[in-house]
Amino acid sequence: MSNGMEGAVNGWLQHRMILDDLLALVDDDYVDYRPWDGAMSLGELAIHIVTSTHMFVNGIKKGEFEAPPEENNYKTINDIRTIVQRYTEETKEEIATIFTYQMKGYIQFNKLRAPGTYWFSNAIDHEVHHKGQLFTYVRMTGVKDVPNFTRQPDEI
Question: CA 141, CA 49: separation in Å to the nearest integer?
Fold first, then answer.
């Protein structure tokens, strides 16, 4: 992995590691919490974040995107945390094996053709967007003290 890619991965991890911190603040009563009708539940949102980033990384490697994996076999917040941790490890491993030519290669997705670098950046932006929503969900469950938006580099 190039130094530039390593920096991008570390930046992504600074965001990703907060998911586990947020989920540690919630108990099982809120796994299916939805702040409005039609919203993803807290559990669905956390899983959507990790499976979508995984989808983007695998799509960059393959040169085409497939639907994110479905993960709906959970009941507790610890089940969700386990899924988040598993996808974090798998995604880190996949990112480590992306080649420069794959990052520069163009891939079509949602009627947009763009290089892998664009899609990797888009994956991080997508994750940050939904992580902001998850912060709101957690606060709406009554949690007053939430973690910082990112972990510091020496905490990764």
Answer: 19
DSSP letter (8 states) at residue 150: S
For domain 3-150, give its CATH number from 3.10.20.310, 3.40.220.10, 2.130.10.10, 1.20.120.450.
1.20.120.450
- Binding-site residue numbers are 48, 126, 130
Per-run averaged pLDDT (10 residues), the chain, 156 residues: 69 92 97 97 98 97 95 97 97 91 94 96 96 97 94 67
Q: pTM for the complete prediction?
A: 0.92
Task: Work out the angle at residue 46's Cα, subtended by the Cα atoms of residues 43 and 50, and round it to the nearest 5 degrees.
Answer: 135
- Binding-site residues for a divalent metal cation: 48, 126, 130
Q: How far apart are CA 128 and CA 108, in angstroms?
A: 22
